Amino acid sequence: MVTAAKKSAVSNTVGTAAPKTARSAARRADKSSGGTPSTLEFSKAEELEAYRQMLEIRRFEEKAGQLYGMGLIGGFCHLYIGQEAVVVGMQAALKQGDQVITGYRDHGHMLATGMDPKGVMAELTGRRGGYSKGKGGSMHMFSTDKGFYGGHGIVGAQVSLGTGLAFADAYRQNGNVCLTYFGDGAANQGQVYESFNMAELWKLPVVYIIENNKYAMGTAVSRASAQTDFSKRGTSFNIPGEQVDGMDVRAVKAAGQRAVEFARSGKGPYILEMLTYRYRGHSMSDPAKYRSKEEVQKMRTEHDPIEQVRARLLEKSWASEEELKAIDAEIRDVMNAAADFASHDPEPDPSELYTDIHR
Amino acid sequence: MPTEVLMPALSPTMEKGNLAKWLKKEGDTVKSGDVIAEIETDKATMEVEAIDEGTLGKILVPEGTQDVAVNTPIAVILADGEDASAASAPVPKAAEAAPAEAPPLQPSPVASAAPAAPAIIHSAVATPPQPEALPEPDVPAGTEFVNQTMREALRDAMAEEMRRDGDVFVMGEEVAEYQGAYKITQGLLQEFGARRVIDTPITEHGFAGVGVGAAFAGLKPIVEFMTFNFAMQAIDQIINSAAKTLYMSGGQVHCSIVFRGPNGAAARVAAQHSQDYTAWYSHVPGLKVVAPYTAADAKGLLKSAIRDPNPIIFLENEILYGHASPVPKLDDYTVPIGKAKIARPGKDVTLVAWSIGMNYALKAAEELSKLGIEAEVIDLRTIRPMDVDTILASVKKTGRCVTVEEGWHQSGVGAEIVAQLMEKAFDYLDAPVLRVTGKDVPMPYAANLEKLALPSVQDVIDAARAVTYR
Q1: Eight-state DSSP code of residue A238
Q2: Which GO terms describe its molecular function (chain A) (predicted)?
Q3: What is the DSSP letter of B239?
Q4: Residues of chain B positioned with their CB less than 8 A from the CB of A170
């Protein structure tokens, strides 16, 4: 890990040799996220698991949207609908002890790490049963048990923090890896590059996942980024990167396994640009006038991550319509129960105002 | 005409140095750029170059002399045909308190007949007043004290805590191989290795975030900022991530981290390198803010800070780094965070200060005593959480209070103390509480303007006389 500069420089050249193939594979990926690069085929069990997990996130988010409309959720609320394949595919590449950190669009990440929908929903409604006792809200939730380190509201801050989590892994030589998620918007923050530099210099076990959903709030990537291929953003630090069809959970998992293995083996950081799309506005109050309805519709009908799995399951007769409906019904029940809990759980006790300021 | 070589000032705050070694001997020919001697400062060993061609005519300060004041003539260089006897031989002097009004000084050649230029003293604190030796509650009677500089005390505190706990590490710019920009981390790399003493790139925002992330994972980083002026680039991570996450996580994720480094004005480094951030950080719930004045407090408080499971802003002062004061010789000396101390007892007026502000307060107290005004000087030591009780107890006795800080007055720490006294000691006050602060300007470079911008001992005396109506 943190070794003398000379040593790093030597391993540097070793580190860059491996990802060449990954890089050229990346170039083959369709930038409009329409193409399907070579992917690991999923088994029936994997397809069904991915289907269930992605659907859980979608139904959770739909329910959150409803509760927001009812005034039960306040403040900012950023939904993850459309991007589900990214976190579900990446999580499948992790092992116990690995860490996950992300920005403000974090509900999907939390569910993917196995956090309880009730606790997440109750945090959204600001109740005492929420993961942060109602004191963090949508953007600030944590579960050290599940290796989830937030939930950060300052765009880009999680990139330095995630690099620090990876620093701790390297310091302890525990073989863990930190997945550090951020968006195409955060990718233009200065501290991202400060972190890239240190991560490569010290060979930290961190995978940077840039969720490129094409819009930083209302600003299209092409209007904000001189280099729109985010997989190249680590080039000047010798960090390998690849573009991944982030709408195909199989492609995500395959890339995730490559990247995580690379980082875990001590070769340093790795960048995965996930080409993805959010169907909803940036937040609940965003009418998303900066893009056409047709653009959204095209994504929904042609590239929806859940529909892709569903179609394969049906095509291969790994599940019937009825079975899939039954899964959906089960998930709806879970989310209804979470919403019910989050609506009836009491608000934090007033005494909580002054707790958790110092330890 | 013989040219005198003067003891050079090698840093903005250097007042004296040791003449470690002569590399040329009397009679040697030297040309401009030749290294003629090595000077040891408390931070580094530096080379002295000849600035003129000629012959090293006379060595005025022998090798091995300690504490040679800046600008003391150390040798004479003779031009062709000149004789060593042409040069007067000023007596080399160890650093002493120089006249306060030293003439402006350039290391220019001095005529042989001219007396040696008086040594310039860069700061007003060449001989820092020491608080009276009041017993610390945690120091057993009969404990031996050793004189240490604050620099050594801080280094010892880190080394002791790193020996004690493998999760403690130090990171920052130049902390390892260079041994610290201000030599606070001297020797740590040698003892603990590159895994635990980590040189960072110049990337304050980034490495502050990396430190906070490592703390989230349970490590206990000491993040050194070369100065807190540069930490402004990192203040988002300090406040938004380090200070708030325990609360935002409902108590799940804590952040045991120390951000430390010199804060405030050093000497002649102008506005961007001279800001006092005490009030800024003291504003923020979730942080603790510590600013010691003595070496003993620096050591004891830094050890406590490293063990504290919360984010600590540890504000040092460059001018105080080289000052020595007694440190108790104990295996494990800690000072509790959040406790002020009475540095000088008195009955007529309370002076509240911390860090270098104590220097003004203690000097003023000495002068006030000559006027028959006995000032009680409180060294706040911790700014947040503030030990308001100690201030209140003192003010209830004296009925008068003056605060002293180098920072600006608006929303300053003094303003907070004034408000606390208004709320909690209004009926005990016999005069309005006054603040002595830095002037409301960016720090100027020019020596005279800089002096005007900083508080002075006289300012404190004037304020104390005003509130005691004497």
Answers
A1: T
A2: pyruvate dehydrogenase (acetyl-transferring) activity
A3: I
A4: none
Phi-psi region of B208 (alpha: psi -120 to 50; beta: other; left: phi over 0): alpha
Phi and psi based region of residue B165 (left: phi greater than 0; alpha: psi -120 to 50; beta: remaining)? beta
- For residue B282, which of B390, B378, B382 has the smallest C-alpha distance? B382
ipTM of the complex: 0.89
Q: Which domains does chain B have, with CATH numbers?
A: 3-84 (2.40.50.100), 145-328 (3.40.50.970), 341-468 (3.40.50.920)
Contact A194 B245 (CB under 8 A): no
Between CA B367 and CA B373, with CA B371 as vertex, the angle to 5 degrees is 90
Kindly report the nearest CA distance between residue A335 and chain B, in angstroms: 23
A163 with B209: Cβ contact below 8 A: yes
* pLDDT tens sequence for chain A (359 residues): 444 444 333 333 333 333 334 444 444 344 444 444 456 899 999 999 999 999 999 999 999 999 999 999 999 999 999 999 999 999 999 999 999 999 999 999 999 999 999 999 999 999 999 999 999 999 999 999 999 999 999 999 999 999 999 999 999 999 999 999 999 999 999 999 999 999 999 999 999 999 999 999 999 999 999 999 999 999 999 999 999 999 999 999 999 999 999 999 999 999 999 999 999 999 988 989 999 999 999 999 999 999 999 999 999 999 999 999 999 999 999 999 999 999 999 999 999 999 999 99
Alpha helix stretches (DSSP H) within B324-434: 357-370, 388-398, 413-424
Helix (H, G, I), strand (E, B) or coil at A210: strand
Average pLDDT over residues B214-237: 98
Q: Which uninterrupted H or E stretch holds B281?
A: helix B278-282
Distance (Å, rounded) from C-alpha B219 to C-alpha B269? Answer: 35
The C-alpha of B229 sits at a distance from chain A's nearest C-alpha, in angstroms, of 18
Are B170 and B197 in contact, with CB atoms under 8 Å apart?
Answer: yes
Kindly name the residue from B122, B273, B323, B409 that is annotated as catalytic. Answer: B273
The answer to whether the CB atoms of B169 and A131 lie below 8 A apart is: no
Catalytic, B273? Answer yes
Residue boundaries of the structural domains of chain A: 5-345
Residue B231 in tokens:
């930490």
Fold (CATH) for A5-345:
Rossmann fold (3.40.50)
Instruction: Please report residues of B whose CB lies closer than 8 A to that of A130.
Output: 250
Q: Which of B206, B251, B254 sits opposite A355 (nearest CB)?
A: B251
List helix spans (H) across B135-241: 150-164, 188-192, 204-216, 235-236
- HSE of B55 in the Cβ direction (CA atoms, 13 Å)? 13
Separation in Å, CA of B371 to nearest CA in chain A: 45
User: What's the gap in Å between the CA of B136 and the closest CA on chain A?
Assistant: 26
- A30 vs A20: CA distance, rounded Å: 18
pLDDT digits (tens, 9 = 90+) for B269-314: 999 999 999 999 999 999 999 999 999 999 999 999 999 999 999 9
Catalytic choice (B204, B224, B405, B406): B204
Is the separation of the CB atoms in A3 and A12 below 8 Å? no
Say how far apart CA A181 and CA A272 lie, in whole Å: 9
- Judge: B251–A197 Cβ closer than 8 Å, yes or no: no
Q: Which phi and psi (to 5°) does residue B320 adopt?
A: -80, -15
Can B174 be counted among the known catalytic residues? no
